[in-house]
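Reviewer 2 asked us to include a model.

Predict the structure of this chain.
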Amino acid sequence: MSSVDNVIANIRSIIDRKGLKHKAVAEKAGYSIQQFSNMLSGRKVIECTDIWRIANALEVTPNDLFGIGEEAST
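Predicted model (structure tokens):
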């Protein structure tokens, strides 16, 4: 599994664990649901700025999205 796939899997896992809706996370991060969906499906490259925006929307650190932090390991 590539690091991009890991980030996507961690984003999905955190969303599920927190009981959030993809639309709510997308809006909080400043994306349309289509843009966010494209990121989670791999159709749009997730860039550094996206990592920060998504982490803030999920109220986790960027390290959590990479599977390095406490949130990702729980």
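The chain has one domain: 3-73. The chain has a mean pLDDT of 92. We have added this to the supplementary material.
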